[in-house]
From TrEMBL:
Gene3D superfamilies listed in its UniProt record: 4'-phosphopantetheinyl transferase domain
Biological role stated in the UniProt entry: Transfers the 4'-phosphopantetheine moiety from coenzyme A to a Ser of acyl-carrier-protein.
Name the record gives this protein: Holo-[acyl-carrier-protein] synthase
Binding site for Mg(2+): 8, 50
Cofactor: Mg(2+)
Catalytic activity from the UniProt record: apo-[ACP] + CoA = holo-[ACP] + adenosine 3',5'-bisphosphate + H(+)
Length: 122
């Protein structure tokens, strides 16, 4: 059953300016494996992480670098969670997370759906 939905839209040029003004954001927001990606991909991943926290209903116990957006060999994106972020998801009874993201016309967007077996969050 769906327990949460999140969506986020990022203007890629604005996101790039934010990273240029505050270079440490790259380390605070992205895992080591994500940091070398092109700007449009970083903006998509930022949108995905924002959408994920919205689907959870908040960011308590969630750490950005413990959320990594990766892809299956088919190209389908998914979220790899670790540490306290994975524990928060398990504690909330979430059994599946679905992710879709894209970029076009200077914008990146991501949509996340969280599911649990019984449809309720603690």
């Amino acid at each position: 059953m769906i327990t949460g939905i999140g969506v986020d839209l990022v203007e890629i040029s604005r996101f790039e300016r934010s990273l240029a003004r505050s270079p440490r954001l790259l380390e605070r927001l992205f895992s080591p494996g994500e940091r070398s990606l092109p700007m449009r991909s970083l903006a998509e991943r930022f949108a995905a992480k924002e959408a994920f926290t919205k689907a959870l209903g908040g960011s308590d116990g969630v750490h950005w670098t413990e959320i990594e957006v990766t892809s299956e060999t088919s190209g389908h994106p998914w979220l790899r969670l670790c540490g306290s972020t994975a524990a928060v998801v398990a504690h909330r009874g979430i059994t599946a997370i679905h992710l879709s993201m894209t970029h076009e016309g200077g914008f990146a967007v991501a949509y996340v759906v969280a599911e649990s077996a019984d449809g309720s969050l603690p």
